[in-house]
Design brief:
8-stranded antiparallel beta sheet, 20 strands
């Protein structure tokens, strides 16, 4: 009888030990310090091999990296979620998306903030107009331009071969009404000629010359953004040209910029009408709604 009782006691202890061990294992599995940050973006583009996107959570006023990803030619991000510490996720007040060099040796965010949003509960809705992004959505921007070639030494033979963002009726005055940009961004003018985007130069203000005149003639141009396409044509194009039927664009570019094409932000565009009069103001269309990227972050 004693032997039976001893066997029963040992068996009960084994059962109790097994149950306790299972409970401890269950506790280890359930008590996790990690959770996923889910991302959904629309309108981002491929940055090439030299740059990547990086997300940042703002925790106690300081940025914490929330993952680096790229976007392919179809606009699909290389990642849609990142594992983060639960405490970091819970204490984050905002999310900011930046453009960073790749590889990047600087642990701090770059100055090129493209999207941002505050958390409302567990969701952050991102826009370019957030103060921690570009601080404007460009939807109030307007533009006028003329066709003219003021740098050709007074000749009037190629007036359809130049575009200048000025308004002759204003004195002349600025043809663009555009917001000031934060550090890390600048405007760029373009003429898309036979499908080829050709830069007219970069600038930060609607008045004053832009930073490029490599296609213009020898005379001084007006103190506004613009370009005459008279010489040094890129491969595949011939200058002078005729811009009627072409498209002119004002884009917003990251700085530094590694692409020979307009960036995804193109707030002002115009198809130059056939038969457009030279030296007369032509209106641009606001395109911001169609080109502003957006995003949603869920923790």
């Amino acid at each position: 009888m004693k032997r039976i009782n001893s066997i029963l006691a040992v068996a009960m202890m084994a059962i109790l030990f097994t149950a306790t061990s299972c409970n401890k294992e269950k506790e280890v599995v359930d008590i996790s310090t990690k959770s996923n940050l889910e991302m959904n973006f629309t309108g981002l583009e491929d940055l090439g091999s030299d740059y990547a996107y990086e997300g940042w959570l703002i925790v106690d006023g300081a940025p914490v990296s929330a993952g680096i990803f790229t976007v392919n030619e179809a606009g699909i991000p290389s990642a849609s979620s990142f594992e983060m510490d639960i405490a970091t996720l819970e204490n984050a007040t905002a999310y900011v998306l930046t453009i960073e060099p790749s590889p990047d040796n600087d642990p701090a965010p770059s100055k090129v903030h493209i999207l941002a949003g505050d958390f409302n509960g567990n969701t952050s809705t991102l826009g370019v107009d957030h103060p921690s992004a570009i601080a404007t959505d460009f939807k109030a921007s307007t533009g006028k331009y003329i066709l003219a070639t003021p740098t050709d030494g007074g000749g009037m033979d190629n007036e359809e071969s130049g575009v200048w963002w000025l308004d002759p009726a204003a004195g002349p005055g600025p043809g663009l009404s555009i917001p000031a940009l934060p550090e890390g961004w600048e405007y760029e003018g373009w003429a898309v000629i036979n499908g080829v985007p050709v830069s007219t130069g970069k600038f930060t203000m609607a008045s004053g010359n832009d930073d490029f005149s490599g296609f213009s003639g020898t005379s001084a141009g007006p103190a506004f953004p613009g370009e005459d396409f008279l010489m040094n044509a890129p491969s595949g194009l011939t200058f002078p040209t005729d811009l009627t039927g072409a498209t002119v664009v004002i884009s917003v570019e990251p700085k530094p910029d590694n692409s020979p094409a307009p960036f995804l932000l193109k707030p002002l565009v115009s198809a130059v009408p056939s038969g457009a009069m030279t030296h007369s103001a032509l209106d641009m269309t606001n395109n911001a709604e169609a080109t502003n990227p957006t995003g949603t972050i869920t923790r």
